[in-house]
């Protein structure tokens, strides 16, 4: 075995690669070797350099220093075309689909089939698309539908289907499961297995170690822009990998410590709140007390995000009432909700949470700007000060407060979003997928921050697709299925199985009947 | 997470230098070039001439900067200038009131007309989320037609003596109208950098949804930006009247294009969210200096126009690279 692997040269060899952005060393000498036909995991905390490496491999960034060779030849990552030509395909964390074009057009966009006269061959394009999406398990979906009509999980699968179209030697998957449900994940892993059997190498970038251990052959750990170690999966363990990632032992009990102070009065209650997308008759009724963290579990499309957006009046609601401190309120828009003491950490950092090109300090003052500067005149120094304060509180890693938010890693960007809402001193904080695209270390830091907030009496509603996260964080978990609450579990009743049963719409009565 | 703190490093790079001084440097080189090629260029008479020529474009450019920063565009400012000027001109030539009163009313009428047109542009495009390109194209026609109608397609003249006199005042060869335009630039700079309104203008241009979810009234800020642009067109109308002592319904044709050019050459992104009014000042200067200098060099006006067009294209290409290096 050992001798065989040595005979075939590694497909991708990255050695001592450096990429500096001004003073920030995003990559500070990383090494990575990917063998022919293996599934290789790349893990590391936020800002460890995973995304930067991918951007160098795909020609988006020029490396500062170091060597890359691909298939035995020196590889000069000059342009996205160059990497595509040698056979590197990437499925990005951010989608690269053309929303208003059809599924079929998106699938074939890199190499559109043409007829003899140079016209688009739609028949061929459609039949290709049908095959391609069947390969990712989306059989039966009409390929003429525009991508904009699809949910986020299906878009991810379309993106994967597209990258499988071209002849690729190395498939890079950047956080492919972030938006997928359990069922779709299983599908994806099957796809990866197939691809691997065809001799294609897969670089699998993920924050989910269970997935890494399920499908990968080897794992490389990055920390602070350097390679820590590369190990065979069967010779390591998740806890060992985590300790390599963070450089210390992570204490899982930190965040799940039992409630320190008794809950206060009810901070927010909804009564039969129906969202714009609501299909059910009764709407959602829940209550959360001061100092309590209420988790909301459910499958993609169960209406969790819509529910939070309806509370916050980000979207119009379809009937129902919201009570703050047991007083009925009627919000005309987000401003009213904020004035009533609600904060909303949205699901999508890039499109809703941050103004990426603006400095960190300006992002943090975005919500409380008018309170901070009642005269309408901005004092930049006070703004900088506020940013430093929250940056320290949340252990944010940044260069200057005047740097653009875009210059930070995912986890630190998420901390900016948190800081922005904390600066408005909310009594109720709504959080939608608060740790999406955030690595293990930063995740636990965020849990710690939320726990501390709860201890200060902030009521929180957390929507998350990660069950372990909800079970660590929440004092209670409400499970939603098809825009309804299908069950509420207290801490002693938590189990993944139970939550999933409820999420799939099996109510307690149904189970009893069985 | 490790405790490494990233220390802010101050390194001066060619790129950084170009970013901060790019347009100013270009303007400086242009001035040096024309000074060397024509002895008439750096005379006080000619400088005064240039300042007079760029004043109206600068005023319109300041307003346009706000609209472009929120990701919009205003094609109507040239027509709105004409409309405002004839409305103000009508008021100013009314008989039976004192000169002072008439001038005050006329100024208010001119600014008011401009602001109203801007408000309409902003309200319609923001309320229905329609592209301002189309809405202001409509306004371009409405205002031009309105101007011709109000003025009965005639030029209005014989304003009060005090008003005509005011337009020709200058200090050490610097026309007062240019000084007022400079004051406007300063005001706009203060608004954009030190007020909540200015912050929101940048915010909306970058990410409207994030601004809305942060609890701000996006509609109001958008309308505000257009209203400022319209008011600047009204101000431009008054400057036009003070300088030429007429109000004409066919004034300001294609002025919007020069204003947009000044903003873009000044490095403000047409996509919104990035740029500054100081850039617009530089942009207006570059257009003015180029026009003046090329004619002094003996080129005809057609050649001048071609070269100005070329500069706009080069400016956008330069801006492309600037954005590319700014966003890593």
TrEMBL record, chain A:
Supply the alphabetized keyword list: ATP-binding, Cell membrane, Membrane, Nucleotide-binding, Repeat, Sugar transport, Translocase, Transport
Pfam families given for it? ABC_tran
Main localization of the protein described in the UniProt heading? membrane
Write down the membrane topology. Answer: Peripheral membrane protein
One Gene Ontology term of the molecular function aspect: ATP binding
The cellular location(s) given in this protein's UniProt record come to: Cell membrane
Q: What are the ABC transporter domain coordinates in residue numbering? A: 12-249, 261-507
Is Hydrolase one of the keywords UniProt gives this record?
A: no
What Gene Ontology cellular-component terms does the record carry? plasma membrane
Signal: present as a keyword of the record?
no
By what name is this protein known? Monosaccharide ABC transporter ATP-binding protein (CUT2 family)
UniProtKB/TrEMBL annotation, chain B:
Q: Name one GO cellular component term.
A: plasma membrane
Provide the transmembrane region boundaries: 12-36, 57-82, 102-120, 127-151, 171-197, 218-240, 246-265, 277-296, 302-321
Record flagged with keyword Magnesium:
no
- UniProt xrefs under Pfam families: BPD_transp_2
Tell me the domain of life.
Answer: Bacteria
- Localized where? Cell membrane
Regarding the membrane, this protein is recorded as:
Multi-pass membrane protein
For whether the record's keyword set contains Lipid biosynthesis, the answer is: no
Keyword annotations for this protein, in alphabetical order, are: Cell membrane, Membrane, Transmembrane, Transmembrane helix
What GO MF terms are annotated?
transmembrane transporter activity
Q: Which PANTHER family match?
A: ABC TRANSPORTER PERMEASE PROTEIN YPHD-RELATED-RELATED, RIBOSE IMPORT PERMEASE PROTEIN RBSC
> Protein name, please?
Monosaccharide ABC transporter membrane protein (CUT2 family)
